[in-house]
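Figure-free illustration: sequence to structure, shown twice.
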Amino acid sequence: QEMVYFNYEITDNTAVEAYYVWNWRRSQFIPVGTLFSPFDFLGQGFNPDLSVPGVEKRGSDKPKRGGQWGIALHHILEDLNYMDLGIYWVRSHAQQPYLQANYDPTGPGTIPGLFTTYHEVFSEDQDTYAISLNGEVGQTGISFQTEISMREDFWDTRECQNFFGLAGILGAIGAAPFPTSWTPNYPDTGGVPGCENEANDVYTWLGNLTYSVGGGPFGADKQSYLLDWQFQWVDGQDRGDPTDKVTVAGPNTAVAHGFEASPGVDQLDRLVTDFAWGYTIVAAYEYNNLFWNLNVKPTFVWVHNVEGYETFNTGALVENQRTVRASVTFDYQSKMSLEIAHTWWPGKEGTWSDRDNVSATFKYSF
């Protein structure tokens, strides 16, 4: 996205900065059909891999090119160990789409909803207000960063969970993509509570503590530790929606329990709760010139999503999903580096449950 930016110092301790984006661009998903693609029902080349017809995509509602901007005011608090206080106001357009089903009860065919289509909707003029505070905890050497934000009428806080029909999944259990009994107020779009776009305010508290020191008990030349957390509240969420995945199957309890076994973690329709939180712990070490003029940097990461479910656009948190990552980087004179990493998702929660990834990354700077 093309943008302009400026910064102006009002006083020695106070500054204002702002930017304006004049050319909106959408986010590009990983190409459809590739190994790591999470959204095979979106994008060019979409072709359902089920033995039933999928639901066709019919265009996109894109926002205007311009109209995205942000302004921030920073003030240094000298009496509080030179902490940085920031106040922000950002107006932006969605870069990832919200899917809107187009119900067509009068279309050809005898099964209601059989020829339902969908299109992408990109919300615009979304306002975010935030306050941040950064600094050091006394003379401990521990630095902190924290931010509280409110996104007004955020574009993706729906909780209706009736969009899994867009991939033709219902056809696999002998049903139409959108049976009328499963969609109250059919065929009115957005008639289901929780299915509305831009329906809720989202409050988020982010923060982290960082500690870095030379030496230490592990013989490292440098060691760093990070504790990061996220809390999210969604105002106005309605629970017990009639299109929730646990209840949509009605008398077909086998199907209902099948959805319940992995509640809301499928890539098309994530369960949303009004509260969610999780944390991350990172430990990183650096051993300079350990051998062959190589700096060796082992890093360990633990991620725990403790409670609640978030949409992909507000953090993608899945309750009790855990991630463990161990890596080691071999760096040669800051010109070449090789990282070998192993990532593991223990447990049964989340889309990556009980999986492992091994990666090797080589970098050369010139």
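We now fold a second protein in the same way, so the two outputs can be compared directly.
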Amino acid sequence: MRSDKVGSVKPLASSPLARFVNQSTPEEQAEVYRRVFEKVDKDQQAVISQAERGSHDE
């Protein structure tokens, strides 16, 4: 009965992200993480600056 649950994990292990993590070098991973965090930071700054502008208009 429990073997079903163990088997259901396999698709995750073969996902593109898992393959990338397993096959890429630490340098490649660092580059991807850096790009993701840069984008998140830009989005966050945009939200913060828009919120600040909005609060000054009132």
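Summary for the second example: Residues 25-58 form one domain.
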